[in-house]
Amino acid sequence: MLVIRPLQSDDLEDLYAMAQKAGKGLTTLPADRELLQRKIDRARESFNQRCAPEAALYLFALEDIQARKTVGISGIEARVGLEEVFYNYRLSVTVNASKELGVHVRTPTLNLSNDMTDTTEICSLLLS
Per UniProt, what is one GO molecular function of this protein (predicted)? Predict the structure, then answer.
């Protein structure tokens, strides 16, 4: 049976093992025990309402009760971009058209943006 619950310090080794398997592609969960422990501590402070609401980080563990093992993680960052720069991409379409030349080209374009600053973000989704 699987349950979702707040991440705890006891989850550190399982979390570290998942982060190692994820490799460098998951930048919010690097394979660094000290950093992961700080994130766990910050999440605990958030759940216990010992930090400003906009600074909260809520991390959840997906636990396999029978195996007594953390098999997944997800999180909610209350507000992004308040203490460090937060960039996101916006997908738009550029159209180049000419009836005279018989040209109609639609080009998907990624635009660097910070439109999502000061919004809530779902983060760190990882399943083993």
Answer: arginine N-succinyltransferase activity
